[in-house]
Design a protein that fits this description.
single chain, alpha+beta, Alpha-Beta Plaits, 6 strands, about 55% helix, elongated
Length: about 575
């Protein structure tokens, strides 16, 4: 094979690798959407999906319009330059063996990621129109300018600032915007008591949030690993190190967060531990190429503390309502990971780059301060203008109803929970209201009906009793079997939430106490006539008893009458099996 053919092969390999990385980073949008929707309430799910969809759809053309030129132009070390629709020559900034449009789409998906971080922190109370505007500003100017400093050959890059895949350039910048945006908005209705104590507002679908975290973890291999933009000349070996460090930091962070919450809240907090996984990923992103595995593990441990105490600090001290923990994950750990890169960069890497550890750490500090200052000032101006013009926050009525309906005309993002109104004409039913016979629907598949005349006295002359049982979910099957054994012929079963005189027991959600815990229970309703009530009650008590708080309750009511619609039978006959006749 000739040298020229080898060169082409290398170019194809590098381009293919970068495109795969771009596709994975794009798929992070699905992960962010799932995390944000799962960690918020169901009445806002459609709004969350729309915002994540618009992040990418708005950011893509705007980054093409001016963003790429601002980020990778060579006009100055502060501002790359205005190059509308990226018509200039960028060959000097392209990685070896990577085509222009390949590198362009790779950078585009990173831009969209920075914008989408803000969505979660401002969820459940932001106007959709306002969101589209500030998302556009982030993609149009805020991200490209600081991105030029870090990755586009700007002044920070010239000083030796190192952020391999975006702890600062993407995550910390998005976290700053999220923090300031949530502060501008104010907390959700009911988030804080009159004395400022935070109240838990749990997300509606933790499994969906967990799926989002797993998607993000998977895609992070493209986020960090794809940033090598090469599989040749040592790129493949570097990608292996990046993959290993990325995974190790995330796993250690997850484990450490679980332990921290287990100690602090007496139980391992599910949503906070999921945040811990993301925190480890964010923290290792800056230095995944230049630290040893032992250092990646330590960074993971530090990130666990940063996310737990960062979220608690924002929630309890700053009184800023961040529904998904975006500030703790992205701002705190983007900052931490960048600084720890200066602490833990390997000696070999420092020697190869001609820097002492003290100098490198100082540059890392300068970099994070500069990006914080830039993003904080520009996003504050943006939010201030929006708030004074079209407004940032929806009305109180819209917030209470959920943003899906007033902002998008979506009754509910979950179709099975939409109210369904059957439009039926009922003259035949009404016409037979005075008849003793049950109305018969004219349908071929209907069960043949034979009207039976009760053989015994019915209704109020026969004692009928309704027994209502509230039982633990794990004891329901045993209760059902016991009821069938004593001859119960029918029951109604409903999954419910409730609490007794103890008002549940205190639980923690993301560090905030849930004051009254509504525990899941199964409500079983039974009507009896021939079977003694005492038999049913004693059987239920025997099955349900554990000796602990929350064993359940049994309510007993008198029943005036029972009517079986299909046959017209009343009273005790309506409660019996047909085989008994």
């Amino acid at each position: 094979m000739s040298d020229s053919n080898i060169t082409v092969l290398y170019s194809d390999v590098n381009t293919m690798w970068t495109l795969i990385g771009a596709a994975l980073v794009f798929f992070m949008q699905a992960g962010f959407a799932a995390v944000e929707a799962g960690f918020t309430r169901s009445k806002n799910s459609g709004n969350i999906i729309m915002k994540n969809l618009m992040d990418f759809s708005i950011g893509t053309p705007l980054y093409w319009f001016t963003g790429f030129g601002i980020m990778f132009g060579t006009q100055s070390a502060i501002f790359g330059g205005l190059d509308f629709f990226a018509q200039g020559d960028y060959s000097a900034v392209l990685p070896d063996g990577v085509s222009f449009f390949t590198y362009f789409i790779f950078q585009t998906v990173f831009c969209a990621t920075a914008a989408t971080i803000v969505s979660g922190a401002m969820a459940e109370r932001t106007k959709f129109s306002s969101y589209c505007i500030y998302s556009a500003i982030i993609s149009l100017i805020i991200y490209p300018v600081s991105g030029h400093w870090v990755w586009g050959g700007g002044w920070l890059a010239q000083l030796g600032f190192h952020d391999f895949a975006g702890s600062t350039a993407v995550h910390m910048l998005g976290g700053v915007c999220a923090l300031i945006g949530a502060a501008f908005l104010g907390p959700r209705i009911g988030k804080y008591t009159k004395d400022g104590k935070p109240k838990a507002i749990p997300g509606h679908n933790i499994p969906l949030g967990a799926l989002g975290v797993f998607i993000l973890w998977f895609c992070w291999f493209g986020f960090n690993g794809g940033s090598t933009v090469s599989m040749t000349n040592g790129g493949a070996e570097l990608a292996g190190i990046v993959f290993f460090n990325t995974n190790l930091a995330a796993a250690v962070a997850t484990l450490a967060t679980m332990i921290i919450t287990w100690i602090r809240y007496k139980k391992p907090d599910v949503s906070m531990t999921l945040n811990g996984s993301l925190a480890g990923l964010v923290a290792i992103t800056a230095g995944c190429d230049c630290v040893n595995p032992w250092a990646a593990a330590i960074i993971g441990i530090f990130s666990a503390f940063a996310v737990v105490f960062g979220i608690e600090f924002v929630d309890k001290i700053l009184k800023i309502d961040d529904p998904v923990g975006a500030v703790g994950v992205h701002f705190c750990n983007g900052l931490l990971g960048t600084l720890l890169t200066g602490v833990f960069a390997s000696n070999n890497w420092l020697a190869d780059n001609g820097m002492t550890r003290g100098y490198f750490f100082g540059i890392q500090c300068l970099g994070v301060v500069s990006v914080i200052a830039w993003s904080a000032v520009t996003i504050t101006i943006t939010f201030f203008i929006i708030k004074k013009t079209i407004g940032l926050r929806v009305t109180e009525e819209e917030e209470l109803s959920g943003l899906d309906l007033p902002e998008h005309g979506l009754v509910n993002a979950y179709a099975d929970f939409q109210p369904i109104f059957a439009h039926m004409s009922a003259p035949s039913v009404l016409g037979s209201a005075n008849s003793s016979d049950a109305p018969v629907v004219d349908i071929d598949e209907a069960v043949p009906v034979q009207i039976k005349t009760p053989k015994t006295t019915v209704a109020s002359d026969v004692k009928m009793t309704k027994i209502e049982i509230f039982v633990r979910q794990e004891r329901f099957e045993a209760l059902k079997e016991a009821m069938l054994e004593i001859g119960i012929t029918g029951m109604t079963v409903t999954n419910v939430l409730g609490c007794g005189v103890q008002k549940g027991k205190p639980e923690y959600y993301r560090g905030a106490v849930q004051e009254i815990t509504l525990h899941p229970r199964v409500q079983v309703e039974i009507v009896v006539s021939k079977i003694p009530v005492k038999t049913v009650v004693n059987t239920a008590k025997k099955v349900m008893y554990t000796g602990h708080t929350g064993d359940g309750k049994i309510f007993v009511y008198d029943v005036e009458n029972v009517i079986k619609v299909r046959t017209g039978e009343e009273g005790t006959d309506a409660l019996q099996d047909e085989e008994q006749y």
